[in-house]
Design goal:
Chain B: This is CbaC protein. Chain B: It comes from Natronorubrum halalkaliphilum. Chain B: Keywords: Membrane, Transmembrane, Transmembrane helix. The complex is a heterotrimer. By secondary structure, chain A is of the alpha+beta class. Chain A is built from five helices and 18 strands. Chain A folds into two domains: 115 residues, Cupredoxins -  blue copper proteins (Immunoglobulin-like, Sandwich), CATH 2.60.40; 121 residues, Sandwich (Immunoglobulin-like). In chain A, strand 14 and strand 15 form a beta hairpin. Chain B has three helices and no strands. By secondary structure, chain B is mainly alpha-helical. Chain B has one domain. By secondary structure, chain C is mainly alpha-helical. Chain C has a single domain, classed as Cytochrome C Oxidase, Chain A (Up-down Bundle). Chain C has a two-stranded parallel ribbon with strand order 1-2. The termini of chain C are far apart. Classes of the chains: A alpha+beta, B mainly alpha, C mainly alpha. Chains in contact: A-C, B-C. Chains A and C meet through helix 1, strand 6, strand 7, strand 9 and strand 10 of A and helix 3, helix 7, helix 11, helix 12 and helix 18 of C.
């Protein structure tokens, strides 16, 4: 074959360029440890995520001194949890899966970017050095409201980061003379024990209890308040643990029974009950 | 004219990517240009090219050729 | 008919009609795609929003499908038919067959188009807003998939038509080399046959039965992988006709000859064998595919740079040769001697220049790990608006100014408007694709109606996101104007009277001809076999592993949007028709068989 000298030079230069590209990419993967999303994770049934150990409750979990794992669900058209909070100077492994169609989990302006495919779990390990706030977008079309699918990733300073979660279950309405109960659950998702004080303020009264929550555990405590001390009427209450706060209103009435019997009141009552059981972390927003 | 009308059109078209990327390139050496400033610079360069193109061809051919190549691809 | 004229329409009047029909279909798709393009551009950048954001995705599907399926492929079948007939100097074997595949393609794309456009009309219970990639569990109306199947089958028959011409020619000229344009058509067609296997399996075995309700679920990763099995080589199916034009038309309009016929053959052979085993590079970010498979796709992709780099050399060398024939001198001074006044030349040269830029962003995309920064961002959109949106589209528009007179027998309406049009496209695309690339680096996603978020803002390193948006919108407006000029010229030419002064139907000669090319290059069976082996290497294990992990039909996921009522009806109709057909066939057999036996 008759190849012009210049063309030969060009051909060789092109091959050198190509081999050079492959070499740099290989260097990046092998020496710098830039790993790819791969097939390390087992498949998962998208319809059974609620019962899954990891994805039943999407969350950030501490697994080592500066090591965390984040379990994230992408679904039309939100990410759970949102926001995702991790401390600075940490190594976070993200596990992301989808409940319905193909999404992506893409942290804007970074190379934290993966497709999220139903049935598969994407795994990425990321190092966060500095506190920052990032937007999370879904960059794969997932339906009519795809453009509204967004989340936040907060990398908070280490000393401001904790993994405490507060939830309170309380009566809405009681009869004068009965005891009002406040079931307080404090979850500590960190590895180390948490020593803290739970405070309940209602009316003019304050109750306090010092608790120790073991790492990865939830501590439950119950306050009982005598309604006759409070008297008839509405009473605002607040439960506080560290920076978390949960509040509501307790109504003390003279006679409950009539209202309970009526059908009309039932639905509303049901709603009110579930309102009382809100999540401290969410309320903080 | 020193260059054909079509040639002039092409030269001006090739100016577009250069101007658009000029800001990015200058920002590497910490020169931040706004949109207006870029537009003014662009207009100036276009003006210079137009003046050069429409000047009567009295200089030596050699220089005009080098000029084309500079603004060319 | 005047004696002097030797245009395509004079030599091949029947074929010229088919080519013309294919061109007009292609331009119609281009017009639709262009309208949807400007609507999207203005909506996305928030300059002018008059559609519901949900309809944006219908607009986007229509923009994608009409431009990269109908516009490109109709144009391709037009010039491939031209190339076969011209370079073999023989009519098609059976013009009815040629019309049949053209009509099949037209019917197919019309059905898909109806399914897509019905998405705008709420009262019609039909939609296909699944974008060009139709990733399951997003589900389109069955009509969309059926239309695509018919269209692709039409292209298969077109390929068969070209092969038939070649076989017949070979029987009459057993010792001759395959003419270069025919060689390019045949290699590209073989690549297409191989590539479309993926999408055919995805649609026929999974997506279509699923959309008809015959199967409950599909494996999203499997259908997605099968899509990209086709989805990457399809870009070469768009690009190969443009390459063909750069090899056989550009040297001629530059005033010279093609630098090297053998290397042109090498380039097309490389595309045949390397185009398909690279599709997984679109799935660098997919969970469920091992890193090793991604690495193999990456190396194949990088080697695919080789034919493009070789093309860059040949094209520039041929242009230089032409310029020097025209009296150009100096190291770079020869550029001045090129026929910039000719829109066919200027358009192709500018398209080639932009393709070089696209090559650079493509190298970033191909880089397995750096791809994580840009995957599915606006950067990718910038990249393919340079490749298919300029290298291909602008080349097609430029050569239209040569082909249209050839197939209509009428003079081009205006050369000056044509030149303005190609230059305007270049400038418009410069603004638009530059801003898209830069936006992608900030993390702005692609395929998103309103990429303005409540909780955060994208931070621009230089300038601002607002400026980038303005740049995209400005580019979009210029591109739309360019399209208006293009259509003015097409319509003006169609309305022109017959011209007696058309150039002859010729393509470029070569400096180094086929006699320099080793015979093995023309051994299409060998190259096809190698291509098949490479595909088996690259795809067997990933596909097996995906099926092993997720199952053939995947996990339990609902189609989205959930099945429509009309689907149930269609399923019923199909089954009913099928039964009826079987019954009548049975009856026919019953009546015929005894007759035969007797």
């Amino acid at each position: 074959m008759n190849i012009h000298t210049y063309e030969k030079v060009w051909l060789i230069a092109a091959l050198v360029l190509i081999v050079g590209f492959i070499a740099t990419i290989t260097y990046g993967s092998v020496a710098l440890g830039i790993t790819m999303v791969g097939d390390q994770e087992e498949t998962i049934e998208p319809s059974e995520l609620n019962d899954d150990e990891r994805f039943g409750e999407p969350r950030v979990e501490q697994v080592g001194e500066n090591e965390y794992e984040a379990y994230v669900i992408a679904q039309t058209f939100t990410f759970y949890p949102d926001p995702i909070e991790v401390p600075a100077d940490s190594e976070v492994t993200f596990y992301v899966t989808s409940r319905d169609v193909i999404h992506s989990f893409s942290v804007a302006g970074t190379n934290i970017n993966t497709m999220v495919i139903p049935g598969e779990v994407s795994k990425m390990t990321v190092e966060f050095d500095e506190p920052d706030e990032y937007g999370v977008v879904c960059n794969e079309y997932c339906g009519d409201f795809h453009h509204t699918m967004e989340g936040l990733l907060h990398v908070v300073p280490e000393d401001e980061f904790d993994m405490t979660e507060l939830s309170v279950e309380a009566d809405d309405e009681i009869e004068l003379g009965d005891e009002a109960t406040f079931d307080v659950a404090v979850e500590n998702a960190a590895l180390d024990d948490l020593e803290t004080t739970v405070t309940l303020e209602i009316g003019n009264e304050t109750f306090e209890e010092t608790i120790t929550v073991a790492g990865g555990e939830t501590h439950e405590t119950t306050f009982e308040v005598d309604s006759s001390e409070l008297g008839e009427g509405d009473h605002d209450w607040t439960v506080t643990v560290d920076d978390y706060e949960e509040s509501g209103t307790l109504t003390v009435v003279e006679d409950l029974e009539d209202e309970d019997e009526t059908d009309d009141g039932d639905d509303e009552d049901g709603d009110d009950d579930s309102d009382g059981d809100t999540d401290g972390g969410e309320d903080d927003e | 004219m020193r260059i054909s009308k079509a040639g002039l059109l092409i030269v001006l078209a090739l100016l577009a990517p250069l101007l658009v990327e000029l800001r990015t390139v200058l920002s590497w050496i910490n020169v931040e240009l706004g949109v207006l400033e870029t537009a003014v610079i662009g207009a100036l360069i276009v003006g210079v090219i137009l003046v050069w193109a429409f000047l009567p061809e009295n200089g030596d051919d050699e220089s005009s050729e080098t000029d084309v190549s500079k603004s060319g691809p | 008919m005047s004696e002097a004229r030797d245009a395509y329409i004079d030599n091949f009047p029947a074929e010229a009609k088919v080519v013309r029909a294919a061109f007009y279909s292609s331009f119609f798709a281009l017009a639709l795609g262009g309208v949807f393009g400007i609507i999207q551009t203005l909506h996305r950048t928030d300059f002018y929003r008059f559609i519901d954001p949900a309809d944006y995705y219908t607009v986007l599907t229509a923009h994608g499908v009409f431009l990269v399926i109908s516009f490109t492929i109709f144009f391709l079948v037009g010039i491939f038919t031209w190339a076969i007939t011209t370079s073999l100097d023989r009519e098609v074997e059976d013009i009815r067959f040629t019309w049949a595949w053209y009509l099949l393609m037209a019917v197919g794309i019309t059905l898909s188009g109806i399914a897509i456009l019905a998405g705008f009309i709420d009262s019609i219970d039909m939609s296909a807003s699944v974008l060009f990639t139709f990733y399951a569990p997003l589900q389109a109306h069955p009509l969309f998939y059926i239309g695509l199947v018919l269209f692709v089958v039409g292209t298969w028959l077109a390929g068969l038509d070209w092969f038939r011409s070649w076989w017949a020619w070979k029987a009459e000229n057993p010792d001759e080399r395959i003419p270069l344009p025919t060689f390019m058509v045949l290699t590209t067609t073989l690549m297409w046959y191989l590539a479309t296997l993926g999408v055919a399996v995805a649609i026929l075995f999974f997506l279509l039965p699923w959309s008809l309700g015959l199967i409950e679920t599909v494996n999203p990763l499997l259908t997605r992988t099968l899509f990209w099995f086709f989805g990457h080589p399809v870009v070469y199916f768009w690009l190969m006709p443009a390459y063909m034009m750069w090899y056989i038309m550009l040297p001629k309009v530059s005033g010279g000859k093609l630098f090297s016929d053998p290397l042109a053959r090498v380039v097309f052979v490389l595309f045949l064998i390397l185009s398909v085993p690279t599709g997984i590079h679109h799935q660098y970010l997919d969970p469920g595919i091992a890193e090793g498979f991604k690495f193999i796709a990456m190396t194949n992709t990088m080697f695919l740079l080789l034919p493009s780099l070789l093309t860059a050399f040949t094209v520039v060398a041929s242009m230089e040769h032409g310029a020097r024939q025209r009296g150009g001198t100096g190291y770079v001074g020869w550029l001045k001697a090129l026929p910039w006044r000719d829109p066919v030349f200027a358009g192709m040269a500018l398209a080639g220049l932009m393709f070089a830029a696209a090559g650079f962003s493509g190298m970033i995309n191909a880089g397995m790990n750096i791809n994580y920064l840009v995957h599915n961002t606006f950067w990718v959109v910038g990249h393919f608006h340079l490749t298919v949106g300029t290298a291909v589209a602008l080349t097609f528009m430029a050569v239209t100014y040569w082909f249209l007179p050839q197939v209509t027998g009428k003079a081009l309406w205006s050369r000056s408007v044509a030149l303005g049009q190609v230059v305007l496209w270049f400038v418009g695309m410069t603004f638009m694709s530059n801003a898209m690339h830069r936006g992608g680096l900030l993390g702005i996603p692609r395929r998103t109606a309103e990429p303005q978020y409540d909780g955060f803002e994208f931070e621009a390193a230089v300038g601002s996101v607002g400026e980038l948006d303005a740049q995209v919108a400005l580019g979009g407006v210029l591109l739309t104007l360019s399209l208006v000029l293009f259509f003015a010229n097409v319509i003006g030419t169609a309305l022109n009277g017959r011209s007696d002064a058309l150039p002859a139907n010729e393509y470029a000669e070569t400096l180094s001809g086929p006699e320099d090319a080793p015979l093995v290059l023309d051994n299409l069976k060998l190259w096809t076999a190698i291509a098949v082996v490479l595909v088996i290497f690259a795809y067997t294990f990933p596909l097996l592993s995906i099926i092993d992990r997720g199952g053939l039909l995947g996990p339990d996921v609902n189609p989205f949007p959930v099945s429509l009522e009309s689907v149930a009806f269609l399923t019923f109709a199909v089954e009913h028709l099928g039964t009826a057909a079987l019954e009548s066939a049975g009856n026919a057999v019953q009546t015929v068989v005894p007759g035969v036996i007797r």
